[in-house]
Amino acid sequence: MKPIAIKATAQKGSIITFNCQVFKALNNRDKSQSRKSFPAKLFFDTGASNGTISKQLVTALGLKPLDRRVTIVTATGRQENTPIYLVDILIDNILPITAYPVFEGFDHKGAVEITVGMSGIMLGDFAITNLGMISIATFRMPSISTIDFTKN
Length: 152
Known about the structure:
mainly beta; Cathepsin D, subunit A, domain 1; three-stranded antiparallel sheet; 2 helices
């Protein structure tokens, strides 16, 4: 498989987000199901194990939770029992992440509607560079080589 790479840029003090389309995960039993999608801002969250999705996006997509729930610990230390959903994500109209499990329930006031945690980041290579007060995040999938800034 040929690797696909994406890039996003942000000015100092801004969140680095990627444009994406989010779909209800394709049901393998019914490949003819209609696939509505919604545009969203995606954030690669290296401090999280799993992905999250906003309540607004869950509602807009008409997502149905899986048959199990999980207890997550938020960044503030609060424990929440939350449903799990499966989504397909198309980042920058070229990079697909399919059947990705996400938990409901965060609010970034519209700045971010969906996050990809380390469970998704580990599908490829992720790097952030900062030069001249501009941050650039890149992600490629699948992984094809090691990125090691300690080697010249």
